[in-house]
Design goal:
By secondary structure, the protein is mainly α. The protein has helices spanning about 15-35, 35-60, 60-80, 85-100, 120-135, 150-175.
Amino acid sequence: MDFTGDSTGNSDHGLTKYVTGLQQLYRFYLDKVTPHEKERWIAFGVLQVIFFLRIIYGEGWYAICYSFYIFSLNQFLAFLTPKFDMSLQQEEANDTLEAGGAPDEQSEEFRPFIRRLPEFKFWYNVMRGGVISLALTFSRVTDIPVYWPILLVYFVILFALTMRRQIQHMIKYKYIPLDLGKKKYSAPSV
């Protein structure tokens, strides 16, 4: 005897349809915001201000704040890091030269910088992390008592050390991971 009210025996069909509809709606709006880079980052900035104000005026959730910013730092490093390890490419070129081979013709060719984590994925991950962190601040259960100045000092030291290492890597392998926009050329004067 079926007590779900569904004579076909498919009680989960309505729930599955509802979840699928929500996923499609979520994907639709995500696809809509994809080309609007500036607006996406403004929305992230607004989320950060709200989150920061919640932490300051709520006087708690420092462990959640610390965890979120460590996660964001990890995502930022993946955003700055090239997809392909440049040290391996340089070692292969050096091995070829040492073996008496000719220098690789492709080494002089322009190769675009390909990120390990694309810009949209970076924004999506930190935005999702920010929303989850903000949601966690609405429960006192997640407010773990910690001495926040220690977390702040530790985060600043960790940030400084990892960024120094990343900048040294960028200088050593001569790449710039930030695209400062498309170059605009003026029309030639006649």
